[in-house]
Amino acid sequence: MTLLQIEQLTHYFGGLRAVQDFNLNLQPGELVALIGPNGAGKTTVFNLITGVYRPTEGNIAFRGQSLVGWPTHKIISMGIARTFQNVRLFKELSVLDNVRIAHYTRAGYSPLEALLRLPNFLQQEERVRQETLDLLNIFGLDDLAESTAKNLPYGQQRRLEIARALATRPALLLLDEPAAGMNPAEVEQLMETILWIRREFQLTILLIEHQMRVVMGITERIQVLDFGETIAEGTPTEIQNHPKVIEAYLGEEVAG
Amino acid sequence: MKSEFWKRWGVLVTLILIFPLTILLPKFGIINPYIDLVLKYIGINIILAISLNLVNGYMGEFSVGHAGFMAIGAYTASLLTVWLFPRQLGPFLFPIALLSGGIAAGIAGLGIAFPSFRTRGDYLAIVTLAFNMIIKSVLENIEAIGGPRGFMGMEKLTSLWWVYLVVILMVFLARNYVFSNFGRGVLSIREDEIASGLVSVNTRQVKVLTFVFSAFLAGVAGGLFAHELQFINPRSFTILKSTDMLVMVYLGGIGSLGGSILGATVFTVVMEGLRSVLQQIGISQEWRLVVAPLMLILLMIFRPSGIMGLREFRFLIPHKERPEAFAGHREQMQARKAAKEVLP
């Protein structure tokens, strides 16, 4: 069964066409990349999927259910999580709290139980705490649980962001330029991480990336956007030699 | 080395030990009525400061009309004790009056929060400002509750020990809220609202919930205030009162309960001290009205983070959340690391 099905997705910012007739089908377990020059509409697609923007036209269905018009937090709790192009952690909060916040819909207690610290609250808080520490443990961040997020080095902030996204228990993970600002060694490690979390958490992953090493190295399928339109799709090898892709990235060859 | 027992229950034991003093000291005249009054004001102001801090500090929104909620609490509680409750039972039903005042203010808060949080930014400030003015005008125009002349006839039910108990309860509730997923949701909204929604926080719900809780606290404080003065009138709850609350919050430090406690205490003491100083040197008391806004301006310029600046007193942190709680986890963690597959 198709996990995510996007049909004829179109979005305008006023008169500006950001995405035009975008189609995408994701099967469970796939690792697909969305690439394209700057301003091609890649992040807009992520924002449309997660309900940050409401599409002008078209449909997005997750496990057969339409997501159009749903508030962001509902879409997230249905099993979609994402990270950001520029790390967007809760900078002043601790590493632990950054991940605990992502348990919001699964906290399992009412405001009244929280106000009075009733047994159920204490029990659920302990569960959330354990789950969070487990997750931080997996990402090697448990020793830093009390640190303020903004004090972490960049690479660890990226990891924390992925950990935070996973805390919502997603089936589909959207990664927006996970390798941005990383050095080659870190990129190498990131690729391993992505493959590892896909296996361990049984994820389907859609990623936006500019670093061709990542795109060509780990994805199974690539879709290329330019000016909001899909200009090519296929396996990494097909895309590498696709004339339209070369044109979009390098420009047209001048005759003579 | 402090014992485990003391770490866990120290705060509670201390609070219980202080309690008899709040009855005995005023009773035997060890503290004079004026000190007694100032202490009560400190207590009431602590609740008000925490109330406003939840919205302006923790959530990062801006309310300037909390005196309106205080007014609703004050009038509701007073009407109940004067008109509805039998006189002899007054002292016993006082908590119910306070609670009702809080709930009435909370309902008003709900009415404000729903439309205001549809959008972001300065909208809440404008709506709450208008709300504060509307409440004052409405109260001035209801003849049955005294109109502009105010409402009186309450008994002096607000004793020092009542203030003490109510403050402890309210601080306890606020602390529990802040150290729950709702409180953390509030903080995440202040940090980055978009990201907050994208990690499954129902931002709308958290905002409304927090605002209602904040209004509830202001309402309870209003009830205490009314039964101390035994006389309330609409002019007690103008934008000036709201400004006082703002000063207390920013003086103590936003996003810190300890800050609000300190801010309220320092503010009350300074304002009372100023009263006698002005009297001594023979300057009009009107000048006190200049001090609060002036303090606010100076604070914003020289120390925008307030006295506490996002930090928190240890005794206000639930013991599970204190740093040493991690020590036990660390060993568990090492074991888990050895047993489980972790990220390469």
Number of strands of chain B: 2
Structural class of chain B: mainly alpha
Sheet with most strands: strand arrangement of chain B: 1-2
Q: What's the helical proportion of residues of chain A? A: 25-40%
Distance between the termini of chain A: 51 Å
- Count of alpha and pi helical runs of chain B: 13
CATH architecture tag of chain A: 3-Layer(aba) Sandwich
SSE pattern of chain A: EEEHEEHEHHHHEHEHEEHH
Task: Tell me the count of domains of chain A.
Answer: 1
In CATH, the topology of chain A is named: Rossmann fold
- The CATH homologous superfamily of chain A is named P-loop containing nucleotide triphosphate hydrolases
Shape of chain A: globular
State the helical fraction of chain B.
Answer: over 70%
Distance between the termini of chain B: 40 Å
Helix and strand sequence of chain B: HHHHHEHHHHEHHHH
Query: Mind describing the biggest β-sheet of chain A?
Result: 6 strands, mixed
Describe what you observe in this structure.
Chain A is of the alpha/beta class. Chain A has a single domain, classed as P-loop containing nucleotide triphosphate hydrolases (Rossmann fold, 3-Layer(aba) Sandwich), CATH 3.40.50.300. Helices cover 39% and strands 23% of the residues of chain A. Chain A has 10 helices and 10 strands. A 6-stranded mixed sheet of chain A has the order 6-7-8-3-9-10, with helices on both faces. Chain A has a 4-stranded antiparallel sheet with strand order 2-1-4-5, with helices on one face. In chain A, α7 runs parallel beside α8. The longest helix of chain A has 20 residues. The relative contact order of chain A is 0.18. With 344 residues, chain B is mainly alpha-helical. Chain B has a domain of 206 residues. Chain B contains 13 helices and 2 strands; from the N terminus they run αααααβααααβαααα. Chain B has a two-stranded antiparallel ribbon. Chain B is globular. The mean pLDDT of chain B is 88. At the A-B interface, α2, α3, α4, α5 and α7 of A face α6, α7, α8, α9 and α13 of B.
